[in-house]
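Might I ask for a little of your time on a matter of protein folding? What I wish to show you is a protein chain and, alongside it, a tokenised description of its three-dimensional fold. I should value your view on which stretches of the chain appear to form regular backbone elements. You will find the record immediately after this paragraph:
***
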Amino acid sequence: MVDEKVTAVGPVRVHMIPTDKYKTNTIVWKMKAPLAKETVTLRALLPYVLQSGTADYPSVKALRTYLDELYGATLNVDLTKKGEHHIMTIRIDVANERFLPEQTPLLSKALQLLADLLFRPALDGGRFVTDIVEQEKRALRQRIQAVYDDKMRYANMRLVEEMCKGEPYALSPNGELEDVDGITAEGLYRYYERALAEDELDLYVIGDVAEEAVLTAVKQRFSLPDRPKRERASSVSVKPQGEVREVIERQDVKQGKLNIGYRTNVTYEDDDYYALQLFNGIFGGFSHSKLFINVREKASLAYYAASRLESHKGLLMVMSGIEPANYEKARRIIDEQMQAMKNGDFTDEEMAQTKAVIRNQLLETLDTPRGLVEVLYHNVVSTRKRPIDEWIAGTDQVTREDVVRVADKVELDTVYFLTGMEATEDGKTGV
């Protein structure tokens, strides 16, 4: 279904995905390192500084003008965490030159631009340009602050902070606000050199491309010295199951945010992963799920109610927006849905519908180059390799007993409630 060929060029894994499905060619560069307090904010800033200029195009304006010359090529950067890994992404989308009247070597130019962004950034006296670093520090502060202003995202972040206290996963991929001010152009450049020398490096090239020509270009432009292989850190939580923690936080908000965290004790690496996906789909992952129907539709207790998995860390998070006075009722009904899953209280129709939605969602994701890379990159983060056809077949084969077995492993860990300044129905005062 997906023809992925992986070739090592020094420490860079080059993933070639030849396809004539798209009219663009996509290049995606990923750098993976362990999440750590001392580096998380440096990493959150670094890709934005790198995309702000190269030696040849030393400003955002010059770089954007050059992208326009490449028939409107686009350049984007991103930061995510998967399990306890912090991942920087740089993506360039460029028109497939075969569809252009002039045979401009656009893919070759795009690969050269990526190499320049990575290895020939705009510098001033052997360090990053101070003005660029300061400008991107301001933008980073705004990105961090934006989470505090968006109460849905804020509640998600706070649940993870409370649930994973003392674990790297508690860190935000956008870094820590209090660490931004201390970053200097020199310090960031030193970290950049360290990241290039130590990170796991993956380059994806997707499109209607000549594989040998791309590999030749990569060997010429992405030459890096080999580095010792790192021991892979496990992303699976080893936190012992203790008492369920309840955290109530008060702010000047009208709508309460009830977020609940569970340890699934199953990750992408496990045989039970497909059953876990099906469990989540029936429980809260889709619009036909128990949370949506019973908490939002039937009981009218929530503005929204859904669940999502963190596949590499083994977490399940429930997110809901409720009237503050409905805290106890909403908790009770959510608990009832979880208990129903553990009891096998779901129909064959729910199983079949959820399998169909998972299959369609996966196929839709594969329809875009970005989605295709994200699905394939799971196989880099994990030691378990799951080909797409195996994923689809594995989902189809999940039985009711498999889902109940997985549900039985799920353990409630932390309840987080963001509410208004007034007391809830049971008089809780919170933090």
